[in-house]
Write a structure and sequence with these properties.
430 residues; alpha/beta; UDP-n-acetylglucosamine1-carboxyvinyl-transferase, Chain; 2 domains; four-stranded mixed sheet; 14 helices; 24 strands; 30% helix; globular; binds uridine-diphosphate-N-acetylglucosamine; binds phosphoenolpyruvate
Amino acid sequence: MDSIVIHGGNRLSGSIPVSGAKNSAIKLMAASILTPEPLRLTNMPRLADTRFLGALLREFGIKVTEGDGADGQETLFDASQLTSTFAPYDLVRQMRASFNVLGPLLARTGEAKVSLPGGCTIGARPVDLHLMALEAMGAHIELEEGYVTASAKNGLQGAEIEFPFVSVGATEHALLAAVMANGTTVLKRAAKEPEIGDLARCLMAMGAKIEGLDTDQLVITGVTSLKGTDWSVIPDRIEMGSYALAAAMAGGEVRLTKGRADLITALTDPMRRSGVEVIEEANGDVVIRRDPTQRLQAVDVTTEIYPGFATDLQAQFMALMTLADGESVIHETIFENRFMHAPELMRLGADITVSAGEARVRGVNALHGAQVMATDLRASMSLVIAGLAAEGETTVGRVYHLDRGFERMEEKLGACGADVRRIKGEGPEH
Ligand SMILES: CC(=O)N[C@H]1[C@@H](OP(=O)(O)OP(=O)(O)OC[C@H]2O[C@@H](n3ccc(=O)[nH]c3=O)[C@H](O)[C@@H]2O)O[C@H](CO)[C@@H](O)[C@@H]1O
Ligand SMILES: C=C(OP(=O)(O)O)C(=O)O
């Protein structure tokens, strides 16, 4: 297993290009199942998650070709021949969003057998709302031996679906199924994360009829077939926010290019309140500036559905607060167990108390390098961020979590002067 070694204390100076969003790319990849025509995704991040999903799509007979085009990294999907609708456990367990192939497979072929996704350390993460939506659209669903077997021999039917609470994955899954259902589907209490808007707009470019974009009610009029298109993946707001926090933690001045400032205002507002300079330039770049000799102020945050503070930035924000002046109260409202990074940050000297969905972070004067372990994707980035400001050497283990969602992280931070190296390890990554 690889590890990341950081020597803290360097100020950062330079530019970091923001990649395409993982959480959009993997849903757009699932959309390729819906059309026999080629779908070309540009601004594609090269991540473990896109690799896992690419392997699963190939299992269905889809040709997946990665390359470099005029707009950078791109991937072409050709699902003209679907030879299988079976998603085996070994491929789905690697990444829970693989489960979202179920709806498109059903919509295109009327049948699918997909492994239930495994749990992960941030919470129980059931898929009951996904199944509820597909059943409401007329799918016959059986659960057996860890697999969902689903059929809709006469096609999926439009339905009115009201989610009891907001779920990103269930909204996307229902959308992917409804675009080719017979009749109209109404999704109430839909999630409105930017990645859902990206998926919906790509589906519309493929010929889908969707109203209510970026609102909590989507109205989808099913069509009988979808065509191919070219689509550029939206910038990764979580990666962008993570590097903004890295720059704030280390101090110095970093320019974030190819991102979108409007996608991270729920983060930049509290960053500004804590004392970080965030400059939005006319060309769309965002400059993060901080004098590391000036102490930041503690700020409270509560994770919420979009446009609130993203749960996927909570761990990284907590890292920043470990060195702030005062006590920061961080509420996690989306996942019941997303404070696994707190004990690891404490190994670096942070002072944090966690109880029932709330972490109290009392800023300390300094962090000290230590060996720590990544417990999930965003937790791993919080440890890297803390390591940038810690005195001495920090070694982050279980880096395969980080590789799920951060492309060339060492290279991007290294180009700004951070001393971050990857040590190749022996043995399996999972
Ligand atoms: C690949 C991807 O896009 N992942 C994102 C997606 O995850 P994901 O789509 O899994 O997150 P959801 O919005 O579905 O989860 C929200 C809450 O609903 C619960 N729930 C969800 C579905 C369901 O059928 N039943 C149920 O109880 C979950 O356990 C969780 O407590 O949104 C999360 C919330 O912004 C982000 O942290 C993840 O990075
Ligand atoms: C939790 C995340 O991803 P996933 O839903 O794929 O586990 C994430 O991107 O932070």
